[in-house]
Structures are given as structure tokens and as C-alpha cells.
Amino acid sequence: MNPIHILAAGEGEGLPLEETPNVLTPALYDIVWSLIPFAVVLFVFWKFVLPMFKRVLDERSERIEGGIERAEAAQSEAKAALDKYNAQLAEARVEAAKIRDDARAQGQQIIADMKAEANLEKDRIVAAGEQQLNAQRQQIVSELRGDLGRQSIDLAERLMGEQLSDSVHRSGTIDRFLADLDRVAGAGQK
Amino acid sequence: MLFEGTPFELDRLMIIRVLVGVLVALLFYVGMRGAKIVPKGFQNVVEIALDFVKTYISDDIIGKKDGDRFLPIIATIFFLTLFMNIPAVIPGLNISPNARIGMPLVMALVVYVVFIYAGAKKYGFFSFVGKSIVVPNLPPALHLLVVPIEFISTFVLRPATLTIRLMANMLAGHIMIVLLFSATNFFFWQFNGWTAVSLVTIIVAVAFTFFELLVIFLQAYIFALLAAVYIDLSLHADSH
């Protein structure tokens, strides 16, 4: 392959095997045609393929990390909402209990007030009744007294045939009698 | 052959190399063009491939932070080696362009330059070389022995082994497959008792082709892995 070899072969001085190039010594074109593909592939890898690969990998991991972060944010948000809800619920419970207690207390107050009022009313009614009874009794007593006096006088007049219409006698006797009667009746009443 | 005798001489292997280089560049360009957050179809395949190199070679060996800086070199080496190895089992091509020393040599030299650059950038060139070849806390007399060993293993053997490992593996695989298929061809056309032997050689040839598939992946993985290991060792040159 080497011009010198060809020349040597042409002169018929070498044996065929002597011309065979050593496998360990490269020819120049061998190096050239090694460098060129290597340079081309290296260039494509260095400037295009690997940057693209790295970009895709980075973007991918960023996406995944971003997704995880977003999920975490959503989770913490949900947790905050739940906490808030729970707090509100507890507050509402406390409030409801308070309202219930208030209502109970108020109800008891009302019942007590009503009871007191009813008692008062009862007392008043009883008192009024008593008063009325007293007044009626008084009236009846005085009516009876009048009737009794008149009838007694009538009876006495009839019995004695005597005119007792005399104002002095009559009034003194009758009044004394009635006062006695009152005393007896008063004792019986008690 | 095109351009014979010039530095741009194109023989069969060189044409395969150029085609494979274009194919790799195109595949990955198409795969990542308009890449979406949610990958679809071919982008998935390309991403899995790139992710393999990133996760199991660069991030795993060099670490996430520095790994990203050197990922382009490591990924290029891995995919170029892998795709250049594949023609070893493609009928009609049958030989990997990596069986010719130029490609492994160029990649090994790139790794050489990169790992020295990585160390020199972190520690300064001479400090890096010093840290790489001097093992601390040794008896002074042992330095006479250890320094040359460390120097040769780090700055001479690394690129040499990278180059020869890949080239020899692919060349050996090619020779084995060629020999087995040639033997099959030879024995079959005997049309006598020897024809039976061709049955054995064809089975072995097919088996060897499957084995070659493993070698194809393994050599690409080893080359890229060692590149990552060398870069990592340069970045930690002070911790022997």
C-alpha cells in the first residue's frame, strides 16, 4: 500500500510476506479516517445529543419534583383547611353548649318567675277570697243580727204583749244581747 | 480504492468506518431531535442507550459531578466502538474497522490526552505527573523501583493496552470466523468423508459468531469503562 513497498515489490526484491504491513503500525490514512468519524461523532454528541439528553433529564426531574411540591402544598393546604374547620366546629360546639346552658338557665328562671308569680296570684286570690268571705260573713252577720234583733223584738212583743218600741229600752237591751251573741259567735268562729 | 496513496486513501474498512461514523451521528441526532419530556418511540431507545453509559459508566465511575464533564468523550468512545465492532458479524462486511489499529489508537490517544488534561487541570501538570508516579509513605529506596513502574504503567501502558486490547480482540475474532467459514467451505466441497467435518466447523462458526456478539459489546464497554477509570484516577491522583 505504501508507495515505497509498491516500488520495492516492483523491483522484485522482497518476499510477499515482507510487504504485509505490521498490524501494530498504522498507515497515515488509517489515522485520518479514524480521526474524522471520531471528530464527527464527538461533535454531534458534545454539542447536540448530550446537552439535549441532559436538558430532557433535568426538565423531567424538575417536573417530577414540581409535581411532588405541588402535591405537598395541596396537602398542607387541605390540612390547614381541615384544622380550621375542626377549630370552627369546636367553637360552634362550645357556643351551642353555652346557648343550651343559657336557655336552660333562662327556662328555669322563667319557671321560677312563673312559680313566684303564681304563688303571688294564689295568695292574692286566697286573700281576696278570704276578704270577700269575711265581708260576706260580716254582711250576713249584720243582716242576721238585724233580723234576729227584729224577730226577737217581735217575738218578745208578742210574748209579753208589751210595747217595747221605746227607744231607750229597746236599744239598750238589744245591743247588750247582741254583743253577748257576738262574743259567743266570735268564740265559735275561731 | 479511492484516493490511493494519499492520506485520504479509502479502502473497504475506511468506507465502513465513515459509514458507521455517519450512522452513529445520525441515529443519535434523529433520536434526540425534538426530544420530549415524555419520550416516544425511537427517543426511548436512544435515551436508554445514553442512560446506560451515563449511569453505569460515567456516573458510576467518575461520579455525578465530574461525570457530566467527561460524558461526551466517554459516550462517543462507547457508541463508536460498539457500532464499529458490529460489522464483525455482519455478513458481507465480516470485519470490524476496529481490527485496523488506527481507530483504537486514535481513541486511546484521545483518552490519554483527556486523562492527562483532567489531572493537569485539577493539580497542575507537573504536580499531577508527580502525584501519579510517586506513591507516598514508601521507604526511599523503594522509590527507585516504584517510580519507573508507576510511570510506565500510567503513561505508557495505559494507551498501549487500550489500543492493542481492542484491535487484537476484533482482529482475532475476524480471523477465527474467517478460518471457520473457510474451513467449512473447503471441507464441504471435498464431497467425500471430509465433508462431514464441515458440519462441525459450521456449527462452531455460528457459535463463534454469537460469542463475537458478546465480544463486540464487551470490548466497547471495557474501552469506555477504562477511559472513565483512567479519568477518575487522574481526578484522584493524590489518593493512592
Structure write-up:
With 190 residues, chain A is an all-alpha fold. Chain A contains four helices and no strands. Chain A is rod-shaped. The N terminus of chain A is likely disordered. Chain B is 77% helix and 0% strand. Chain B is globular. At the A-B interface, helix 3 of A face helix 1, helix 2, helix 3, helix 4 and helix 6 of B.
Task: Summarize it.
The complex is a heterodimer of chains A (190) and B (240). With 190 residues, chain A is mostly helical. In chain A, 88% of the residues lie in helices and 0% in strands.
Strand runs of chain B, count: 0
Dominant shape of chain B: globular
The number of strands of chain A is: 0
Q: What average pLDDT do the residues of chain A reach?
A: 81
Work out the oligomeric state of the chains in this entry.
heterodimer
Q: What are the segments of chain B in which pLDDT stays under 50 over at least 5 consecutive residues?
A: none
Terminus-to-terminus distance of chain B: 50 Å
**What is the CA-CA span between the terminal residues of chain A?**
164 Å
Biggest sheet architecture of chain B: none
Keywords:
heterodimer; A: 190 residues; mainly alpha; 4 helices; 88% helix; 0% strand; rod-shaped; disordered N terminus; B: 240 residues; 7 helices
